[in-house]
Amino acid sequence: MKIVVIEPLAVEEKKFMEIARAAVGNDHEIVCYGDRTTDVEELGRRGRDADIIAIGNLPFPREVLEKCEKLKLLAVAFTGLDHVDLKYCQERGIKVQNCAGYATAAVAELTFGLLIGLCRNIAACDAATRREGTKDGLVGFELEGKTIGVVGTGAIGSRVIEIAKAFGMEVIAYNRTPGKVSGVKYADLDDVLKQADIVTLHVPLTEETRGLIGERELSMMKPTAVLVNTARGPVVETQALADALRKGVIAGAAIDVFDSEPPVSSEDPLIGAPHTLLTPHVAFATKESMIKRAIIEFDNIAAFIDETDR
Question: Which of 90, 103, 197, 280 has CB atoms 3.0–4.6 Å from 262's, for a disulfide?
Answer without folding.
Answer: 280
